[in-house]
Design brief:
Helices cover 36% and strands 13% of the residues. It has 3 helices and 3 strands, in the order E-H-H-E-E-H. Helix 1 (17-24) packs across helix 2 (28-36).
Length: 78
């Protein structure tokens, strides 16, 4: 019997604050601070003062890519 590969789980396109924290390996307070400071763009769903806040996964991926510092030495240096 051969082992089956684990299924790939793709995160949803819109993440809530807790999912953003898991995705970035950060605390909820740190995520809220980045949102408050305008570092992470948000989507408000509902249009009311207590609207639900969501973050696009593509925005998080772009933030990670923009924050990447390339290696200067070693096998990963270009």
């Amino acid at each position: 019997m051969t082992a089956q590969p684990a299924p790939t789980v793709t995160p949803p396109a819109l993440l809530d604050l807790w999912q953003v924290g898991d995705y970035l390996n950060m605390t909820d307070d740190a995520v809220r601070r980045l949102i408050r400071d305008g570092v992470i763009p948000t989507v408000k769903i509902g249009g009311r003062p207590k609207s639900r806040i969501r973050v696009r996964r593509t925005d998080l991926d772009a933030l990670i890519e923009a924050s990447l510092t390339p290696a200067t030495t070693g096998p990963l240096a270009k």
